[in-house]
Amino acid sequence: MTPREALAGVAAVPGAAKPDPHLVVDAVRRDFGGMRAVDVEHLEVQRGVITGLIGPNGAGKTTLFNVLTGFDRADSGHWAFDGRNASGLPAHRLARRGMVRTFQLTRVLSRLTVLENMKLAAVGQRGERFGPALLRPLWSAQEARVERHADELLTRFRLAAKRDDYAGYLSGGQRKLLEMARALMVDPALVLLDEPMAGVNPALRQDLLGHITDLRDAGRTVLFVEHDMDVVMTISDWVVCMAEGRIIAEGPPAAVAGNRAVIDAYLGSRHDEPEFREGR
Amino acid sequence: MDLMVILSDAGRGALGPVAAIYALAAVGLNIHFGYTGLLNFGHVAFMLVGAYGVAVTVAVYDGPLWLGALVGLIGAGLLALLLGLPTLRLRADYLAIATIAAGEVLRIVFNAGFAQPVTGGVYGLQQFAGAFYAVNPIPSGSYGLGPLSFTQRDVWVMLVGWGAVALAALGLFLLVHSPWGRVLRAIREDEEAVRSLGKNVYGYKIQSLVLGGLIGAAGGILLAVDAQSVTPNTFNPVVTFYLYTLLILGGAGTVLGPVLGSVLFWFLLSFADSALRQAIGAGYVSPQVIEPADVGALRFALVGLGLVLLLVFRPEGILGNRAEMRLEAGAAGTPRRPRRRPPNQVSGRIKEEAGQ
Ligand SMILES: Nc1ncnc2c1ncn2[C@@H]1O[C@H](COP(=O)(O)OP(=O)(O)O)[C@@H](O)[C@H]1O
Ligand SMILES: [Mg+2]
């Protein structure tokens, strides 16, 4: 039974237990002043599938990502990644354990070339330690391997022609591509994508969609935030909806699309304006 | 007014021990500011610790000179940890505040009466580098071309000083072209992104601060040895700002930027100084307009003007990369000078353009 088929028997209720959860979140809260931005009682993310996270603007999706990946602290609660506690761990440790995120507002490293952006992300590089860094023979073979892998990914993401340009000169859509390709250099088991399609033109959107399904087909778990319902409904195996910090519905795409609470949450707020702030 | 004298004064400034000392210290600052993006506004504190490490060990405790240098370096390493451990997890401005304060606090404490038995207070310490000059292999005499000449003592300091600069620049070259250097440059751009890729940003920033601090201390050690004297007021905050000036002049974030910057800075400063004195001496400028005593201040005004002009026309510094600079300023668009394009793509691009 594939991970996707396993979801068939899961009840479409918030907090539903999954047959093979990759990420398990318990009682996670995050308050900003008097406002509770995240208030997740229980959430399980099934391994090896694409889970879409939807919800109107300000629902707390980015804040939840930030908390789970160690970029923000939770006021309470705990969560486990791959069966091991992940709460309170620094972001870089979680990334090394295989939980890698991208940002709603892309964070390419402008004054590094596209290739350098990619090579930076490879894990376990000997030359990244101070001593060996001084002696090229100690790391040049590994560097060549990293570069080959980076070039493969750049070709796959159609960025090969830009490889030696500064990343700061890429267009918005290319930056999204680079960020996703770069995350892959870490070889993550779980990828959290925060609005990977925002501000991307329709042609590139198709590319990005393909890359997201490729991630799943390569056996990775994907949790992604998206506003465009059509996109979410086409590629997600499972959809979770947040509103005002809480999980208000989850289930297979069709079930969530027809869910009363979800429709109310969207109608009750305007969600179409673009966001200009990266929630932290 | 003798142009030869002016030029040889300028040449002496550009190549002399002081230029080497500033170049060395600026290599350290370049690691902080140019490569890692750390705002260290108290680099002079590392120089002070290096200089006093030598002076106190030798002059007060009768230790050997090499031990003094070691004490200076260890002290600078500890200072870097003291400044970095609490602040480098926080926003960039905390390090800036801590470093600028540390420089002033050290200067004031070393000046204070209660510290006098160890630091010599305002009088400082003198004549502790005899061992260095005792091993001078340069035969006595005068070296140079015409009026541009150095004593054997100067030549010895310059040899060691520029040797140290070359060594530091070589080390930095190797480091910035390694994956380690790539992480530092990435942190300069956006540390959150680097963290998201599994790098321990805090650890790298500490390493950068310690390494740059050690090189700054080496500059301080050289300063003490060259002058055979240290006083706290040598290490006032303006030294840090000269270092920033020459670093930006040469090109921050380039390996040779601080070296070229220091040579140019001291060339210009000595040139302005000598030219003004000559002009007053020859009667071109009336002493009522500029007194010889004002020259010291006025030369800085002239050099400042020159720097302003340079930065208007070449904001990235002499060795800096303009395409990179425009990104820093937040400008987008297509690069006018893309870097390191592989040959096959260059030809591909030309063909494309020719075909249109
Ligand atoms: N750093 C912050 N300080 C204060 N409030 C914040 C901060 N980050 C997010 N918020 C608030 O938390 C709520 C959730 O924001 P966010 O997680 O960005 O929502 P989403 O990504 O679902 O659109 C919003 O009301 C937002 O204004
Ligand atoms: Mg968001």
Main sheet properties of chain A = 6 strands, mixed
Order of helices and strands of chain B: HHHHHHEHEEHHHHEHHHHH
Order of helices and strands of chain A: HEEEHEEHEHHHHEHEHEEHH
Number of domains of chain A: 2
Helix content of chain A: 25-40%
GO molecular function (chain B): branched-chain amino acid transmembrane transporter activity
Keywords (chain B): Cell membrane, Membrane, Transmembrane, Transmembrane helix
Subcellular location (chain B): Cell membrane
Protein name (chain B): Branched-chain amino acid ABC transporter permease
Give a description of the structure:
The complex is a heterodimer of chains A (280) and B (356). Chain A has helices at 3-6, 61-68, 91-97, 114-120, 130-133, 140-156, 172-185, 202-217, 229-235, 253-257, 260-267, and strands at residues 21-32, 35-46, 50-54, 76-81, 84-85, 99-101, 190-194, 221-225, 238-243, 246-251. Chain A is an alpha/beta fold and 280 residues long. By secondary structure, chain B is mainly alpha-helical. Chain B has a single domain (3-133, 150-353), classed as ABC transporter involved in vitamin B12 uptake, BtuC, CATH 1.10.3470. Chain B has helices spanning 3-15, 17-36, 43-60, 65-87, 92-111, 116-119, 130-134, 152-176, 179-189, 191-196, 201-227, 238-250, 257-281, 295-313, 322-328, 343-355, and strands at 125-126, 142-145, 148-151, 229-230. In chain B, the strands form two sheets. Chain B has a two-stranded antiparallel sheet with strand order 1-4. Residues 331-356 of chain B have low confidence and may be disordered. The chains are: A alpha/beta (280), B mainly alpha (356). The interface between A and B is large, with 47 and 40 residues. The structure holds adenosine-5'-diphosphate and magnesium ion. Residues 61-62, 104, 275, 279 of chain A line the site of magnesium ion (MG). Chain A: This is ABC transporter ATP-binding protein.
